Amino acid sequence: VLAYQNRKAEAASIYHQALEILEKGLGKNHPLLADALNGLALTQAHPEALMTNRRALAIQEKLYGPHHPDVAITLSNISNGLMVLGDHVAARDAQARVNDIREHNLALLLDAGSETQKERNLAYITRETDDTVTIHLRHLVEDEQAARLAMATIVQRKGRLLDVMANALGTLRR
User: Fold this and answer.
1) pLDDT of the chain, 174 residues: tens digit per residue
2) Quick check: 67 and 101 in contact, CB under 8 A?
3) What does pTM read for this prediction?
4) Cα dihedral 13, 14, 17, 23 sign
5) C-alpha closest to that of 162 among 116, 106, 114, 123
């Protein structure tokens, strides 16, 4: 909360304390440690935040594997940090991984879970689709990979949402 209130120094101090406690109590590869690292990154300048997010990503990939939704969230943060730092090609590549993970999990995420969970997942998907298109249209206009990534993401997401709507209509008809 403090990071969002622009009280980043206070938030950073609390995150550092939490990280110390978590590392001592739970070890260096615990999911709570990755969560705290992602929180700490919100309080940092972009180069440092990028390193912190990468540390969180390494923990998440080791614990959950490469296709977990939490990995996608951290990769999205990394992509955004790379964009701010001007490394648009690396941002595109990170965003491509985010999109692959979301596509891998999208059917499960939209078919199962509560309406609140579906809304939260759709919010992530919307933001990440916007990020993908922005990378192409604002930063890599001439980049064929960025164009293909943006188009493929739009078409995949549209198709997936149409599938969900068709399933919902089928359920209503029964």
Assistant:
1) 777 778 889 999 999 999 999 999 999 999 999 999 999 999 999 999 999 999 999 999 999 999 999 999 999 999 999 999 999 999 999 999 999 999 888 777 766 767 787 788 888 888 999 999 999 999 999 999 999 999 999 999 888 878 877 877 887 888
2) yes
3) 0.87
4) negative
5) 106
